[in-house]
């Protein structure tokens, strides 16, 4: 059975793309068949895994708005094996064009994925940093949402707003949408703030918060410039250890049902 997980938080710079890349890679190393959908016009996930190969290359934009067959757009990356639906700057215009469609504009991504969904164990969607129509498409196509939360002030405010959006999507388009989990990112055990924010989020959201926190680790920020996940870039790093643990925790939760 395939599971579609949207990695979402309307704040930029909280670790969505880093989590999308490294969770996809971790799942692949566990033998899972993975599709990573880059759903951000910045194309960071695509670039970070070298899925942008040439100018004018078809992207998720063509799938979404021109109904191009996803099979024609998917880049098959090896070691670890990940199928990638890349994005580029063309996606920046997609929200205006989606708005023009009117009825059913929230369900486009879900429809486009229907024909390929069953080929995968996990489909990971790297969402844009906004709560616009692209994000709504991702949440409508998804079975669950993974929310990365950066250990900083105002972290909870952002989550509260995102949870309201999730509830709205549940009411309007996707009643079965679940919270996959809340992930504390850029955790720094040496700072009081990190520890306090983490405790605060855990107090508010209990078991929904992953036991694994992702530490602030320079290797995690260096790996994308080499086109690698953290597991190829430095498997001994604290970042690799943490994303390995997160992957196991996520799979365990899912396989327990
Ligand atoms: P988002 O996709 O939410 O905008 P990113 O994953 O792109 O966030 O992360 C924002 C920046 O922080 C990037 O430069 C990334 O390399 C860096 N970064 C993300 N997670 C970590 C971490 N745990 N430790 C150090 N740097 C990180
Ligand atoms: Mg990003």
UniProtKB/TrEMBL annotation:
Domain of life: Bacteria
InterPro entries assigned: AAA_dom, DNA_Partitioning_ATPase, P-loop_NTPase
Catalysed reaction equations from the record: ATP + H2O = ADP + phosphate + H(+)
Span of domain AAA: 2-179
One matching Pfam family: AAA_31
CDD domains the record matches: ParAB_family (cd02042)
Subunit structure comment from the entry: Dimerizes in the presence of ATP but not ADP; ATP-binding is required for double-stranded (ds)DNA-binding. Interacts with DnaA.
Similarity field: Belongs to the ParA family.
PANTHER family: P-LOOP CONTAINING NUCLEOSIDE TRIPHOSPHATE HYDROLASE (PTHR13696), PARA FAMILY PROTEIN CT_582 (PTHR13696:SF52)
Name of protein: Sporulation initiation inhibitor protein Soj
Native source species: Faecalicoccus pleomorphus
